[in-house]
Structure prediction request, 215 residues.
Amino acid sequence: MILVNFKTTKEGTGENAVKLAKICEKIQKETKIEIVPVVQAADCYRVSKAVHTKIFVQHIDPVEYGANTGNILPEAVKQNGAVGTLINHAEKQIDLNVIKKTIERAKELNLITVVCIAKPSLAKKVAQMSPDYLAIEPPELIGGNISVATAKPELIVQCVENADGTPVLCGAGIKTIEDVKKALEYGARGILIASGITKADNPEAKLRELAKGFQ
Ligand code: G3P
Prediction:
């Protein structure tokens, strides 16, 4: 599985988000590797209307219908076409108790949960909250050109060990097919990627290359 985090990039916002999601859909069809656009909540309706693949959002808040101005209501993203969410991304960190509540709210709606963690020591605690996936992303490698699988493979291995069977994804600095292959060798079940796609000269060719790393 490849999660493509559009973040708040120009290339991943509004109509550009639709274009990029269509590329994800095309390469998913071609390679049969699941490729999930992870979009801003504001874009999930527009993107979900344009493609037939799964769409995740980057964050939800564990609020209910009511007076919660500015929060991202899980029901709203679900009604607008998202089927999953990141939780606790390095750029949107929340406390452990909020992670727990957010997973619980997501589960009420059958939203798929991917909880990001910066270090493997958190894996056990978070795995006990029963998310669908854990994603290990060392913050210092995010946006760079050296991948987690090259610089810190032991983090992936430790995270898989500590995750008690919860599938582990990894991300940060992934740019090449070798990065993908190594991540899988160390026990990851998929990758999270952002700049490797959003800033690529040819996002379609880059996604095709990375998807081949799974085959
Ligand atoms: O969520 C994925 C992201 O944080 C990794 O970013 O740019 O290092 O692929 P990047």
